[in-house]
Amino acid sequence: QMQLVESGGGLAQPGDSLKLSCVASGGMPFKDYTMGWFRQTPGKEREFVAAVSWAAGETYYAEAVKGRFTISRDNAKNTLYLQMNDLKPEDTAVYYCTKLESFGSRHYTARGQGTQVTVSS
Questions:
Q1: Which of 24, 43, 52, 74 has its CA 20 to 30 A from that of 2?
Q2: CB of 85 within 8 A of CB of 50?
Q3: Quick check: 25 and 1 in contact, CB under 8 A?
């Protein structure tokens, strides 16, 4: 089974930037999988944020973050990233790194423990 460990969350002010990282270990080679980020706030359903194909040739984003967030991966380092720019208070959530069933799918088969992002002035 693939294990995923996120880092990089924290407290930011509106307009700031943060970069999340997720290191994968175990299971099949990281490079073979589509990876994605989800987020969740208390009382709300988990929300898809972004996904990147196994070769990083394709990405797609939720409308709420398009143009502000960038998903990327370094297959040599087994690491997934989420660069978050122009953060807004509504971006406050726990962010989860996930292994997706396929590109275009919103179903994941592995998930990290999450990292908290709080955007507040």
A1: 43
A2: no
A3: no
pLDDT in tens, the chain (121 residues): 889 999 999 999 999 999 999 999 987 788 889 999 999 998 899 999 999 998 777 999 999 999 999 999 999 999 999 999 999 999 999 999 999 998 888 999 999 999 999 999 9
**Alpha carbons 20 and 84: distance in angstroms, whole number:** 8
SS (H, E, C) 1-65: CCEEEEECCEEECCCCCEEEEEEEECCCCHHHCCEEEEEECCCCCCEEEEEECCCCCCEEECCCC
Q: How far apart are CA 72 and CA 12, in angstroms?
A: 21
Q: Which residue has the tokens 């969350």?
A: 9
d(CA 71, CA 19): 10
Beta-carbon neighbour count of residue 48 at 10 Å? 19
